[in-house]
Amino acid sequence: MSPEDINAAARYYRDVFDTRGPLSPPQSCRPTNLTDAYDVQMAWAESFADGSRGELVGYKIALTTPVMQQLLGFDQPCIGPIFENSIHESPAALQFNEFGRPGVECETAVRLSADLDAGPYDRNSVGDAVAACMAAIEIVDDQNADYEAIDAHTLIASGAWNGGCVLSSPVEEWRDLDFREIAGTLVINGEEIEMGKGADVMGHPFEALAFVANTLVAQGRPLCRGMIVMTGSIVSTKWPDRGDEVTVRMDGMGRATARFD
After folding, report:
1. Type and span of the H or E element at 163
2. pLDDT at residue 74, rounded to an integer
3. How far is CA 202 from CA 89, 168, 188, in A?
4. What is the pLDDT of residue 93?
5. 83 close to 141: Cβ distance less than 8 angstroms
6. Which residues, other chains included, contact 188 with Cβ-Cβ below 8 Å and sequence gap of 6+?
7. How many CB atoms lie within 10 A of CB 152?
8. What is the DSSP string of 105-146?
9. CB count, 10 Å around CB of 80?
10. What's the DSSP call for residue 234?
11. Sequence-separated (6 or more) residues with CB below 8 Å from residue 245
12. Which is nearest to 104 in space by CA: 80, 139, 63?
């Protein structure tokens, strides 16, 4: 894609975000390779320098499981930015109509105590930069997508659909936790919907963190001290209705709760 095409696509995805969809991009706005997809995403993220979402304060990872990669015809995870105004402390009261179509996921989030600007990183070396871990609800927003008109490159270009996150109180004494075995449960209106373990995300949540760190170093926009990273869902995405209360419980990290009013 030419610079003009990249900027035009970024404007399209920003307009879709602002109007809450529907996301059904024309062919001219659909990147056909990974480089173009991330170039569009970066231009899209830069459009929020207008302050409407606050500062860029972290990143998420998506498509961490083979089944999700196969669904979108892709062979690796992908990342997207998180903005300041979309991070909420638990318990959170959220407005359902502020999203196109909100989904919820069950995750471990981390807050960094150091820059990750060199690399290459692995599971162990990124752990040295983790200040705290939190139980987290990721809110994904598919912007009422036309799933016949999107693919993984479209997902990347449109910011990997991060609509926000709800975080538990931070746990700073996390080093005795076995993140592979930590169980997480997604609860909606008091009913346990689905459970998973940390190993369900690339074998270990810090493998996901290392992937994010290495990808961003290669792109010249590394993770920085104080950033939040969402390490990927251990359950499949669920789509709450208006009025639903959603809770994520993570062993050793507490819980995060949000109500969609």
Report:
1. strand 162-167
2. 85
3. 27, 23, 25
4. 98
5. no
6. 104, 238, 240, 244, 245, 246, 247
7. 23
8. EEEEEEEESS-B-S----HHHHHTTEEEEEEEEEEEE-TT--
9. 23
10. S
11. 188, 189, 190, 257, 258, 259, 260
12. 139
Q: Are 163 and 143 in contact (CB under 8 A)?
A: no
**Best CA proximity match to 52, nearest among 10, 79, 86:** 86
pTM of the model: 0.96
Q: Give the three-class secondary structure for 247.
A: strand
pLDDT of residue 67: 65
Give the tokens for residue 216. Answer: 């961003």
d(CA 31, CA 78): 14
Block means of pLDDT (10 residues each) for the chain, length 261 residues?
Answer: 98 97 97 97 97 97 81 86 98 97 97 96 96 98 95 96 97 96 97 96 96 97 98 95 98 98 97
Which H/E stretch holds residue 19? helix 3-19
- CA nearest 81: which of 176, 179, 10? 10
Tally of CA atoms within 13 A in the half-sphere of 29 that contains its CB: 22
> Which homologous superfamily does the CATH classification assign to the domain defined by 3-260?
Fumarylacetoacetase-like, C-terminal domain (3.90.850.10)
Q: From CA 160, how far away is CA 232, in angstroms rounded?
A: 12
DSSP 42-75: HHHHHGGGGTTT--EEEEEEE--SHHHHHHTT-S
Q: Residue length, the chain?
A: 261
